Amino acid sequence: MYRECTRVLSSALLALTGWLQAEALAQSIAEAERLLSLTTGNLPLVLVAPHGGREAIPGIGSRQGNGLPQFKTGRDHNTAELAEAIALKLGQMSGAKPFLVIARFDRKYIDANRPSIEAYEALEAQPYYAAFHSAVDEACKQIRRVWGRGLLLDIH
Length: 156
Fold this sequence. Notes:
Blueprint: H1 2-34, E1 36-39, E2 45-49, H2 79-94, E3 99-103, H3 116-119, H4 126-147, E4 151-154
Parallel strand pairs: 2-3, 2-4
Antiparallel strand pairs: 1-3
Helix pairs in contact: 1-4
C-alpha cells in the first residue's frame, strides 16, 4: 500500500512539474512575441528590422561579447520606423502590403542577425531569439507556398 501511494504521488508530482514547466515556457513565448511586431502581408516581400528595438528583456543582462569579432550592442537608429514606413508606402502605392518582422528588443540583449551562439549570452534570451527567427521563417514559408519565391529585405 505504501509503495502504491508513493508511486501515485510521484506520478502526480512529475505531471505537475511537467505542467509547470510547460506553463513557464508558454509565458516565455508570449513575452517573446510581445517584443516583436509581426504583420502578415499579401506581397512576396518580407521586411525585417532586427536591430531597431529599444525594449529591455526582463531579467536578462546586457551582452558582453567576450571573444566575438565585430561585436556591437548599439541599435540601428530608426530602422524599425523605416521598415514600417516602407510597408505603409507600399500599401498606399499598390494596395498590397509586405510581411513585416520587427524586433522590439534592444540589440544589447540579443543580436537577432547573428547565429545563436553569438546572438545572446543568457539562456533566458533564447525564446526571444527563436520567436524572431520563427516569425521570419513562417513569412518565408507562406511566400514560397503562394508565390514560389520572394524577396527578403533586412533593413539596417
